[in-house]
Automatic annotation (TrEMBL):
The keyword Calcium applies. Transmembrane segments: none annotated. It comes from Dyadobacter linearis. InterPro entries: Aldose_1/G6P_1-epimerase, Gal_mutarotase_sf_dom, GH-type_carb-bd. This is Aldose 1-epimerase.
Length: 315
């Protein structure tokens, strides 16, 4: 296997490419726009599939309000009215969701990440990037957040995150990744999905959790005429759970595997946009509005680190 990492321009944006020359597998990272993965291509036999949908121009990428491929930290999804209570104190985040009702998707979106490391090995290549949270409005904590992207010789693409509390007080942390997936030129109605859950989160009209219910879906279930905008409590008998996105016509399955267990990715959001040309499959370390409910929330003590991994593979 022959890996390389190089830098290129996307309009006025700098981006980094990790590429494996034998298979053509590649990923493209934009540090100055929240360290997002702008492109990801993985090979299955003779076909190289581009599996992420992101805005096609630098301008559209900057203006994107749908969080395509964004890293969501220190919280994901919605916090109603941007208000939360932590260790007896009230906090107010910016209400940045369209309509100005809620805070949504964290504080590192569109931020300029620093390149910490790039390395090429015989069986993988990686980029590590970081962003320093230093008491932003509504979140008076000091946290170093890092993400590492890697392509492996066996065809895996991995997303590893870690966060260290560099302050003197405990802080609440939650992480999620927000990719929109595509499989060739098919639309959502052609696919099946296998969701690793038996429990769906119930929402109110503001998409804030009210409880849970049993999930009554075939496994896998055909996505034809089905619309999702749901959170799920992940079921796992081991240290990981896998969501499968299946195209029977193309004989491929995209496997999105999230670490599970204490402090890991024990929740999942699935969303089908109205255009039905892609699907968002979003591993989360905690439930929607966990800053208020505490469901799955990690509380990071001073000097302590939290970490986890998401793995993508095309079979």
């Amino acid at each position: 296997m022959s890996f390389e990492i190089f830098k290129q321009q996307f309009g006025d944006l700098d981006e980094y490419v990790i590429q494996e020359s034998t298979t053509g597998n590649r990923c493209v990272i934009v540090p100055e726009l929240g360290a997002i993965v702008r492109q990801l291509s993985l090979r299955k036999e003779l076909t190289l599939f581009s599996i992420l949908k992101t805005p096609p121009t630098p301008e559209m990428l900057r203006e994107d309000s749908k969080s395509a491929s964004e890293l969501l930290f220190p919280f994901a999804s919605r916090i109603p009215q941007g208000k939360y209570r932590f260790l007896g104190k009230e906090y107010q985040l910016e209400k940045n969701e369209t309509g100005n009702q809620n805070a949504i998707h964290g504080l590192v979106r569109k931020q300029h990440f620093q390149l910490e490391e790039q390395a090429v090995h015989s069986d993988h290549a990686l980029l590590k990037l970081s962003y320093q949270l230093d008491s932003p409005d509504g979140y008076p904590f000091q946290v170093k957040f890092q993400v590492q992207y890697a392509l492996h010789s066996d065809g895996r693409f991995t997303v590893d995150y870690d966060a260290v509390n560099q302050g003197t007080q405990p802080c609440p942390v939650m992480f999620g990744w927000h990719p929109y997936f595509v499989l060739g030129n098919e639309d959502v109605d052609a696919w099946k999905i296998n969701i690793p859950s038996n429990t769906v989160v119930t929402f109110d009209d503001n998409q804030i959790p009210t409880g849970t219910a049993n999930l009554a879906l075939d496994k896998p279930t055909l996505l034809y005429k089905k619309a999702f905008d749901n959170a799920f409590v992940v079921s796992s008998d081991g240290a990981a759970a896998t969501t499968e996105l299946i195209s029977e016509n193309q004989h491929i399955t995209l496997k999105i595997t999230q670490q599970t267990g204490e402090g890991k990715f024990n929740y999942l959001v699935i969303y089908t946009p109205p255009a039905r040309d892609c699907i968002a499959i979003e591993p989360l370390t905690a439930n929607v509005d966990s800053f208020n409910s505490g469901d799955g929330l990690n509380i990071l003590a001073p000097g302590h680190t939290i970490e986890g991994r998401i793995t993508l593979k095309l079979d």
